[in-house]
Amino acid sequence: MTAWTDSAQPAIDPIYRMQWEEAQQCHVLLFPEGMIRLNQPAAEILKRCDGKTSVAALVADLESTFGEPDLRADVLEFLEQARGRHWIR
Fold it and tell me: CB within 8 A of 36, min separation 6: which ones?
């Protein structure tokens, strides 16, 4: 598997639907066999995985929104894990 490039545009796999689940008080990924509860950082990254936003723009947006510098390594690590779990493509 290749590493994510700045120009890559990750998207949530169509088998999943991300939504806020009031009963769980968190964002979840719904799929035919069940549901995956997401922590806040995972949800914030996946919200931006729309197939149009580049990895570079995604990282810049997160850094700006949360006032945290140097999030690139953490975001790339999450993207790799999410791809490995087939949540994104």
Answer: 28, 29, 87
User: d(Cα 33, Cα 22) in Å, to the nearest integer?
Assistant: 20
Quick check: is 89 in a domain? no
pTM, rounded to two decimals: 0.94
- The pLDDT tens digits of the residues spanning 57-66 come to 999 999 999 9
Check which CATH number belongs to the domain holding 39 and give it. Answer: 1.10.10.1150
Q: Is residue 73 part of a domain?
A: yes
Interval 68-78: pLDDT, tens: 999 999 999 99
Question: What is d(CA 17, CA 66) in angstroms, rounded to the nearest whole number?
Answer: 25
For the chain, how many structural domains are there in total? 1
